[in-house]
Amino acid sequence: MSWRAGSVSSVMCWADRTTLWRAIRLRAVFAESNIFHMVVEVPRWTNAKMEIATKDPLNPIKQDVKKGNLRYVANVFPHKGYIWNYGAIPQTWEDPGHKDEDTDCCGDNDPIDVCEIGTKVCSRGEVIKVKVLGVLAMIDEGETDWKVIAINVEDPEAKDLNNIGDIQRLKPGYLEATVDWFRRYKVPDGKPENHFAFNGKFKDKEFAIETIKSTHGFWKALISQKTNSGGLNCKNTCVSAGDSPFCCSTDEAKAVIEGTTTCGTEDPIPCSVDKWFYYEKE
Ligand SMILES: [Mg+2]
What CATH number has the domain spanning 25-46+76-248? Predict the structure, then answer.
């Protein structure tokens, strides 16, 4: 399946025709508490800003559109596109009604984000198992936006990476580059630099797992209608009707999918996406 950026009319893509935010379980391996599922939205070194569309029925992956144009992240020197496989942990939600005591900011209304640092360039829509290693607390325009750092459990180096310090040791420069990427990636779009709680220091595996658990709790409240969904589309096929009033039948889900635009031929990526932007560091 080719799910690179496409024309506006063909941006809606379905991963195995399933519901990404809801249908994939949070934990990949129940016996091991640090392994979670990750939905890959953006493969490493690509620029198209693809994300789980939380306001669309069954939450497909779509390319963000800004002022009628498909959105691509700019390359801030020396980066090219996203420098990890980037995606989200299903069944999590950063509640915009909850103020985090560490960041002093509310959630960004999205599933929790993951940067996967393994060697393999994943495919868009792929669901992989990742080992969680740490987390960065980004503040994006006044909202808490956690960035979990993790590695694909199938990566040959996964066994050697068990906590945040192992990344520093085995992949020197990667954590610093990650902070630099998130700090400046919106500057070419005329936005200010992003900020971080904890002075831009990564928190360890234990902290990351607690953060994931709390966002899973917020998701559970959302899906069972204990929290107002505020425009998010919670229709799902996997949470039993007793737990979620948004649960729908397979036939209803099929009708939603059949009612969407079919995938067309993708447009070529514009040359302007290759531009490098250079800035003095503040
Ligand atoms: Mg986010």
Answer: 3.90.80.10
